[in-house]
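Work package 3, deliverable 3.1, input record:
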Amino acid sequence: MVFAAKHLLGIEPLNKGDILSILDRADHYVTLNRQPNKHGDALAGMTQINMFFENSTRTQASFELAGKRLGADVMNMSMANSSIKKGETLIDTALTINAMQPDLLVVRHPSSGAVNLLAEKVNCAVLNAGDGRHEHPTQALLDALTIRRAKGRLHRLSIAICGDIAHSRVARSNIMLLGKMENRLRLIGPKTLMPSGIADFGVEVFDDMREGLAGVDVVMMLRLQRERMDGGFIPSEREFYHRFGLDLEKLSYAKDDAIVMHPGPMNRGVEIDGTLADDINRSVIQEQVEMGVAVRMAAMDLLVNSARSNPKGVMA
Ligand code: NCD
């Protein structure tokens, strides 16, 4: 299958075929990553620049390893110490970096839409590593791969996404991806953390965990996005945990073989019980991290190789 996009800015422009191409290629990289020699050559000789304007541990490490395993020269720019602090605009930074002839730019930014704007100004492939509350496409893809490998399929599953939906780019990208793949989606959280008009997206909305989790195959927890809240969205963390924190008792309403997910970083005892998060019979949180590297390898491989055969790209 041909992957026609020039950039990976979000799940929104992708179709089922694009999603499956990335996941199939990622399966191949999972196998490679489990071998002692993890070297591929899909990005050999290329330059990948990671620009993270917002904190990150696992996503930045994951993109760095992914690029290195495929043979790219990977540079991590510490944007906290960058010329942005001296007043340079995002566009000027982009033009400067562009002049250094990178092949791939990986960008995280606190403002929704900033990565799309930057992609318009540069010649190389741009991957969105999370922009504000907008999109986080590689997270949704790694979640999809984790689900497909655990459940044997990625369609007609009943999937609950729980917690701070309103501020979450992870939720937004997942709702789009899992919806495109024809799953049944349930969003569970306090009304204050539910985006208005969300029911129009073909999802069911609940503010009671036990009701919402009844019979689901997958339970996806989210972190409370404190940094994106500008007021009192929850009474207290204790109260939030009591009503919406995932523990064994609430999980017992889901299917017996339901899997538990969290994109990390997680707040134990706020969104999820720590023992449950570590229970390898229920939680696939570590698999999500492993799938992340493979999905990023697949996405970067497909982008640069399709960019060479299709320089304009059709789905930016
Ligand atoms: C997520 C993010 O940054 O959006 N984390 C991640 O990429 N692993 C989720 C979060 O920060 O809550």
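Residues 62 and 293 are 5 Å apart (CA to CA).
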